[in-house]
Each structure stands twice: as C-alpha cells, then as structure tokens.
Amino acid sequence: MLLAEAGLVKGRPATTNRNAWAELETFGAELKKNRVVDDGTLVTAGGITAGIDLALHLVEREISGEVADSIAASMEYARDRDLYSSAGERGR
Description:
- Helices cover about 40% and strands about 15% of the residues.
- The chain is of the alpha/beta class.
- It has one domain (about 1-80): Rossmann fold (3-Layer(aba) Sandwich).
- Strands 4-3-5 form a three-stranded mixed beta sheet, with helices on one face.
- α3 runs antiparallel to α4.
C-alpha cells in the first residue's frame, strides 16, 4: 500500500494482502490475486510469507532457481510459486 500511496501502481499489475485488494484497486492498480506479482521494475507480494516468496523469486530471477531453492531449503521453507509476471510467465 505504500507503493500505491506513492502513485507507483497506477495502471500496473500488483497485489497486496487480500484484506486490502479493494483499496489497492482504488489506486488504479490492475489487481492480480497471486502471491507474487512481477511487473519488471515493480514486484509486489500478498502478505508476510508471500514476501519470502517474493524474495526467493528475485533470487531466482537475478541469479538462479538452484540458488533460490537452496536458500529455501536452508530455511526449511516450502516455496509457493503462485506468480504473475508481465513477462509472460505464469505460476501455478
């Protein structure tokens, strides 16, 4: 919602916690109900643990999937790849 208040989501795909979806839309965001939304230069997540998925997605995007999976394993964290990406990739 801080990004929305700053005017950065208008006309762009984004997500936030489900309790604020309607409010996010009032800022002009193209609401996506995925855990992580990657619009290239703007990446948003739907909540606390979705933020972990966002961080792991960025590691995978910038470094490799193997490194992201290794980090998740060391955290004993089961990744949720519910991703919307404007680059054409769609998660499960």
